[in-house]
Amino acid sequence: MKRWVLVLTERGSDREGKRRRIAALLVVLGGLIGSWAVGSVLASDPIGYGVPVWPFADTVDRAENALLGQVVSAVRGNLPLNSDNVQVLRRTAAYGSEFWTLKLKIDGEIRCREVAVGLSITSRRVSC
Predict the structure, then answer these.
(1) Strands 121-126 and 97-106: what pairing?
(2) Bond into 52 cis (ω within 30)
(3) Residue 116 to residue 128: CA distance in whole angstroms
């Protein structure tokens, strides 16, 4: 005949539980700090990193992205820019790509951006 007995053992001290809680807290804290760091980098140039959405981009950034969409279609079609808000400072063609340095007037702000249009489109903010 089988006899079932409930055996209670004492789990070690509470150190393991504290260690787990501390480890979990450090993981959460590391995740928050990492998210903040990535967010601050993306917010520095949301158009260049390809994330022109809230919370990284404000309304001016989104307007700049819309204006760059018009510029890119003009560059690809080799058409002149017929916009008062865009001034072409410099054009360069090299390595099968077009490099344009633009001065953009957006909502009272003046921003300069270097755009490279080839197989893919890349851009970055530059000083005016």
Answers:
(1) unpaired
(2) no
(3) 17
Yes or no: say if 39 and 55 are a contact pair by the CB < 8 Å rule: yes
Report pLDDT digits (tens) over 9-63.
666 566 777 888 999 999 999 999 999 999 999 888 888 888 888 888 888 888 8
For the whole model, what pTM was predicted?
A: 0.66
Say what percent of the chain tops pLDDT 70. 95
Residues in the chain: 128
Please identify which residue in the block is written with the tokens 């967010």.
Answer: 39
C-alpha span between 26 and 23 (Å, rounded): 5
Q: Is the dihedral of CA 91, 94, 99, 101 positive or negative?
A: negative
Residue 49 to residues 40, 53, 77, 80, 107: CA-CA distances in angstroms?
12, 11, 24, 27, 22
The Cα 84–Cα 21 span in angstroms is: 60
Q: For residue 104, what are the CA distances in angstroms to 10, 20, 43, 123, 128?
A: 71, 53, 19, 13, 10
Confirm if 85 and 67 have CB atoms less than 8 A apart: yes
